[in-house]
């Protein structure tokens, strides 16, 4: 029924935990693509040896030498022959009951295009936090929260291919951007209510709380989403608010120059025109985030017309 795709680049330390969580799943994928993305630390050998110890499991070992998680994901996506596809990261831990619960939902609702779920983040100090979601299909919610994360999207293969797959031009926030494109297509979706998986946050993880020093890698995703939603008032409002919050976070993290660059970029796009959203609202979001305030997205929802 579905294929699982796991790209990896220099994840020798974490791959055994991820692979073990896959084989402990209560429902087995039709195929598990493990895509080596230019590893130099022996990660490919870890996968080869693990697959050799489990000849009963449908592991397929691939290689994509062009660096970039999106390139690796798309390389496997081109090989997928199943109706559904799911992506997971190589340093996280899959919940054993996830595929079972997804299968139950799809069996009851065969016309669905996506099954979504919140995920649980695990930080270096051992603390945990469930990623904020609104259990909606709103593009504005995706822009503000990034509620469709890589490990929370179980998607019909045809839909993913129709929207263009993963954007290989984006070095960062590629799942955020993909979530916007998927929701823009107005899919039939259903959320699972409980959080799944253990998404580990560490200096080498693909996700993290710090944005300092990453603006040049974030701008391509922001530009791509701007080009898509520029004619939609609510989505554009949400993007303006997200940028104001991000600029405040950069300021809070000690990157005042990057914050200013981002604000100037937004002004060039006329995102701060009063025709779309009032400047006092954006200024408040920026200041609140710059002072270290949490949950600014909740305030932004009101200003964007979503609450």
Briefly, what is this?
This protein is of the alpha/beta class and 307 residues long. It has helices at residues 15-23, 43-53, 69-77, 98-108, 139-145, 157-162, 174-184, 215-229, 233-252, 256-268, 279-290, 296-303; strands at 2-8, 31-36, 59-63, 84-87, 114-116, 119-122, 128-130, 153-156, 189-191, 196-200.
Number of domains: 2
Helical segment count = 12
Query: Would you give the CATH topology of the largest domain?
Result: Spore Coat Polysaccharide Biosynthesis Protein SpsA, Chain A
Low-confidence stretches: none
Can you tell me the CATH superfamily of the largest domain? Spore Coat Polysaccharide Biosynthesis Protein SpsA, Chain A
What does this structure look like?
- By secondary structure, the protein is α/β, with parallel strands linked by helices.
- The protein folds into two domains: 2-200, Spore Coat Polysaccharide Biosynthesis Protein SpsA, Chain A, CATH 3.90.550.10; 215-303.
- Helix content is 43%, strand content 14%.
- It has twelve helices and ten strands.
- It has helices at residues 15-23, 43-53, 69-77, 98-108, 139-145, 157-162, 174-184, 215-229, 233-252, 256-268, 279-290, 296-303; strands at residues 2-8, 31-36, 59-63, 84-87, 114-116, 119-122, 128-130, 153-156, 189-191, 196-200.
- Helix 9 (233-252) runs antiparallel to helix 10 (256-268).
- It is globular and about 60 Å long.
